[in-house]
Amino acid sequence: MRPFAEEIRALMERAQQSLEAARTLAAEGYYDFAASRAYSGAFYAAKALLLNEGIELTKHSAVVAAIHQRLVKLGKLPPEQGQALSWLFEVRSIGDYGGTVHVSSKQAQQALQIAEQFRQAAETLLLEQQE
């Protein structure tokens, strides 16, 4: 069994649950919160990827930076996935701290799609590295 296997599994489960919650929130018209949950889904998957590399981080900006440095830069994750995580981090900031600026329905749907793609890419990479 690989190190942190249980923690990685739990993070990927949280990623899936966050995306399910995001879909529910978007369907109810809570776009700010849907975008925030979508980002959380990608964030948990990113943490799982880093933990698989033996890196434990909790600060959001540190996780995003480490994904670029440790996975994208080294060719383990496509550049589009790094860009996706960065965009999700930005839209999450609008959803959580935007004040009078809000996430649109279109942005929320886009966040859901991008976060799901990131989660799937993470799952694929984790499975490949397990072999």
Report on this structure.
The chain is mostly helical and 131 residues long. The protein is built from 5 helices and no strands. Helix 2 crosses helix 3, helix 2 crosses helix 4 and helix 3 runs antiparallel to helix 4.
Outline the secondary-structure elements.
Layout (H helix, E strand, L loop, with lengths): L4 H23 L3 H22 L7 H13 L6 H19 L7 H26 L1
Helix pairs in contact: 1-2, 1-5, 2-3, 2-4, 2-5, 3-4, 4-5
**What is the chain-wise order of helices and strands?**
HHHHH
Major sheet summary line: none
List low-pLDDT spans: none
**What percent of residues are in strands?**
under 5%
Which structural class do the helices and strands define?
mainly alpha
| Distance from first to last alpha carbon | 11 Å
Shape: globular
What's the tally of helices? 5
Evaluate the radius of gyration.
Answer: 14 Å
**Number of DSSP E strands:** 0
